[in-house]
Structure formats: C-alpha cells, structure tokens
Write a structure and sequence with these properties.
The structure holds two protein chains of two kinds.
Chain A lengths: L17 H7 L7 H14 L1 H20 L22 H12 L4 H21 L15 H11 L4 H23 L4 H10 L1 H11 L14 H11 L9
Helix pairs in contact in A: 1-10, 2-7, 3-4, 3-6, 3-7, 5-6, 6-7, 7-8, 7-9
Chain B lengths: L2 E6 L6 E5 L3 E6 L5 E8 L9 E9 L3 E6 L3 E3 L7 E10 L3 E5 L3 E3 L4 E10 L4 E10 L8 E10 L2 E9 L2 H4 L10 E8 L9 E3 L4 E8 L10 H7 L5
Parallel strand pairs in B: 1-5, 4-6, 5-8, 6-9, 7-10, 8-11, 9-12, 10-12, 11-13
Antiparallel strand pairs in B: 1-2, 3-4, 12-15, 13-14, 15-17, 16-17
The chains are: A mainly alpha, B mainly beta.
Protein name (chain B): Urease accessory protein UreD
Keywords (chain B): Chaperone
GO molecular function (chain B): nickel cation binding
Chain lengths: ~240, ~230
C-alpha cells in the first residue's frame, strides 16, 4: 500500500529530479531507454541509498523506542494540548545525519514537504506514528517512512525496498510525461532495475549505526535540484 | 610521518611548526594576523603506492592561508593506487583559506582522497578542490573522495563521491564534465547564488562542473565572501 502511487501523499508531483535533468538534455537524441534507466540506477547508488538507510534507521529507532523506559520517550504527542511535542534525541540526530548528507537545500525542502504529506496521512491511518514524530510537521521523508514501517510491522528489508522501488518508479513514471513513449517499454526499464534495488536492500537493511549511513553524493542531482526550485515553468515540484 | 602545518596564535610572536614529508610547507611573508604557507612538492608526486597525509592544526585568533605553487598530477598506476588524506583542526577562533590548485587524475591512475575537518564553533574554513579527470584529451582514471566536516560535535557535511570512469558519466553525477571544481565554506556561508548549495548547518558549497578547469570562476568566490561575511 505504501508503495502505491495512488496513495494521497503527492507522489504525482515528484519526478525524482528527472524533469531538470531532461531540461538539461537527458534523453535528447533518442537515447531515452539508456538515459532514464542509467539515471535511476545512479540514484540507487547515491541519494536513494542514503534515503533508504535513514528510513531503515528510523524504523530501528522507533521499534527500540517502543520498548525502552519512560525516560527515553519523547513527551506525549500533544494530547494535553499544552506541552509541545519533542522528538526523541535519536530522531533529531538521525535527521541531522540525513541533512549533513543532503547538501542541497532544495532537496531537503522537497523531502520535508513530502514527509509532512506522509505524516498527515499516517495520522489518520496509522496514528501510532505520532508516538515518534510530531503531528503535521516538516520531517524528512525517510524518517516518516521508517516510523510508519515500524508501527506497521515492516522488516528493514521491506522499508529499504519500499524507498528504493518508490524512487525508481518515480523516475520511470515521470519519464512517461517528460519523454512520452510506450508505457509497457517503461515498465521493462523498471524491471531491469530489480538487481540494483535488491543490492541496495542487502546493503542498507542491516544498518543500525548512524555513522555508517552511506553518504554517496551526486553533484548533478544537487545542481539540477537547485536550478529546478527557481524555474518558473515546471511540471513537477521536484 | 605526515606533512604538518601547525600554527598557534601568540600575542608576541605566532608559533609555526612546519614538517616536510611528500610535501614541504614553506612560510611566506604575510600581513599581521595572517600566516601564509606555501605547499611545495618535495619529490615526484603522485605515484603508485604514495600515501600523502597533510595535517593542518591552527589554534587561536589567526588566519592561515595555504597556497599551492603548482597543481598535482596523479600518474598511471598500473593496477596499484595512491591516497591523499587531509586532516584539519581549527580552534580558538582560527580561520583557514586553502585554494588548492588542480588535482589531475591521469588515465589508469587510482586515487582516494579524504578530507576531514574539525572546527570549534567560531572557526571558519574555506577550501577549494579542483578535481580534473584526465589530462587533455585523455579519459581520466579512478577517483574516490570522502569529505567530512564537524562543527564541535555536530556533523556538518558528509559526502563521498565515486568518480570512477564507469560511474561518473551519468546524468546524476558529472555527466560529460571533466572537471569538478568545488569551494566548500565551513563555519560561514557563501553568498546566495543559483548554484550555491546552502548546507543545513552553517556552511556552503559552490560548485562548477566544467570541461576545462579554467572555465570555472570559483577562484573568485573567496573575494566575494570576504566582502559579505555571513555567519549564521
């Protein structure tokens, strides 16, 4: 269900950076299949790997928090209406670790906006998420996904696969709007990414140490994201 | 033994310890409050098996400017590899400016570069890394970079780049660019500009992806920053 693009979290507004890349020339001269697939693969090796690892750690922390003592728990989720919700320090550190690995402000902003959309949905569907994260706030998307994964009983592999698949599918689905072609062909590009997705899952699912979160950067993705954020005519938010 | 530049501000006379290894630091004349040090290669660089390590330690309210007299070429390594590790520690209000000259990775070279920067709050650093993949008309070798910066105990920046020939040419990494020119400001921000990345913590990255190193205008970023220092 979380991997369904019809989930009302604004997935259709995202191109995973494909739109600015196309604007810069990706897929020009009829090389869409090679370029789009390679772009999704590059993301799986870099920024998506970081995002998946952060989600895996968020799931780990949320599960650990559920069985720790009262002292480690965050303040109650604003039920009294007086005390503001304070995230557990481990979640704050995790978001800092993510931010240090996400140098582009445009990408951090886009992720937090999506995180808020997921959080709003979770508040209605999986309200236990609010035991870990403050209601209706801009939290990096992988933290929210990890927390949802914890309260819905997903394994670390499932959380990592969810992030990886969602990212690859975002690229492929956006390519149909940006570089129109046969949708069935686009699905074959997605299927061809299977091994790359599983490699990512195997690498990040066992992580429990915040310092081991991958930090593989992608300079062009950062640059395109900054450029796209100030573009006047755009189809996708990011 | 690593190459080492150690500067301690002193009201009477700044202390300056320079240790030569693969590179030789030489003191240059500078205005009061500024220590200027040139880094000169002490032998042929950078060859298979070389492990260059440069330590920079500055304490107290003083500015260190490191200048390189020439670029560095990493030569073909025939299956072997080399390392270039930089460790920087700034404390007591120190600042560092290090505008490196081009680092050229020739065909068949394999190099890992790491940069670790520890700043006390109130210190600032501005570092230019100009990475060129291949000499003219050549497909460059393999380069992996690892950058980490902390202000106090807080991680400010973590970035690893896989610039191997198979992985760098996509639309996510470098595309067709041969040169990745970066100025990283830590503990202060570079002025807002369309391609300048503003980090979550106090710091910025200005980057140019160009074909020829001289097409980049980043040599001039520092002058702009000095006119409008931003420290939030």
């Amino acid at each position: 269900m979380l991997a369904d693009g019809r989930l009302p979290t604004g997935g259709h507004t995202q191109s995973a950076g494909l739109e600015p890349a196309v604007r810069a020339g990706l897929g020009a001269d009829g090389k869409q299949p090679a370029d789009v697939g390679a772009y999704a693969r590059d993301r799986l090796r870099t920024v998506t790997r970081t995002e998946a690892a952060v989600a895996v750690l968020a799931r780990h922390y949320a599960n650990a928090q559920a069985i720790t003592t009262e002292a480690d728990k965050p303040s109650p989720a604003g039920t009294s209406g007086t005390e503001p919700f304070v995230m557990a320090s481990r979640f704050v550190q995790l978001e800092s670790a993510w931010a240090a690995r996400t140098p582009s402000r445009a990408l951090r902003t886009a992720s937090r906006r999506q995180g808020r959309a997921y959080l709003r949905l979770a508040e209605r569907v999986w309200p236990d998420v609010l035991q870990h994260l403050p209601r209706d706030s801009e939290i990096a998307r992988p933290l929210v996904i990890g927390a949802i994964g914890a309260v819905t009983g997903l394994s670390p592999e499932q959380v990592a696969r969810l992030v990886a698949y969602d990212d690859a599918q975002t690229v492929i689905a956006a390519s149909l709007k940006l570089l129109p072609g046969d949708p069935a062909v686009a699905v074959t590009w997605l299927a061809a990414l299977h091994d790359d997705i599983e490699r990512l899952v195997n690498d990040v699912a066992p992580l429990t140490d915040i310092d081991k979160i991958p930090a593989a950067g992608a300079p062009l993705i950062d640059q395109f994201a900054e450029q796209h954020a100030i573009e006047r005519m755009r189809l996708f938010h990011a | 033994m690593p190459t080492r530049i150690e500067i301690a501000a002193d009201p009477v006379r700044d202390r300056c310890v320079l240790i030569t290894d693969h590179l030789s630091p030489r003191r240059l004349p500078g205005p009061p409050g500024v220590v200027r040090v040139a880094l000169v290669a002490a032998g042929a660089l950078l060859l298979a098996g070389d492990q260059v390590r440069i330590e920079v330690v500055v304490s107290g309210p003083i500015r260190l400017e490191i200048v390189e007299t020439a670029g560095t070429v990493a030569y073909a390594m025939r299956g072997s590899s080399a390392r270039w590790d930089v460790a920087i520690e700034l404390s007591g209000g120190a600042s560092l400016s290090w505008y490196g000259e081009p680092f050229v990775v020739s065909a068949d070279a394999s190099v890992t570069r790491s940069t670790a920067v520890h700043l006390e709050p109130g210190c600032t650093a501005e570092i230019r890394e100009s990475l060129v993949l291949g000499r003219y008309g050549e497909v460059g070798g393999t380069l992996h970079t690892q950058t980490r910066a902390w202000v106090g105990a807080d991680l400010l920046l973590a970035e690893d780049l896989d610039l191997s020939p198979a992985n760098r040419t996509g639309w996510a990494i470098l595309g067709q660019a041969r040169c990745l020119d970066t100025v990283t400001a830590l503990g202060h921000r570079l002025p807002e500009a369309p391609h300048t990345l503003q980090l979550e913590g106090c710091g910025s990255i200005a980057r140019r992806l160009v074909d020829q190193q001289h097409e980049s205008d980043l040599g001039r970023v520092s002058e702009a920053a000095e006119r409008t220092p931003i420290t939030h």
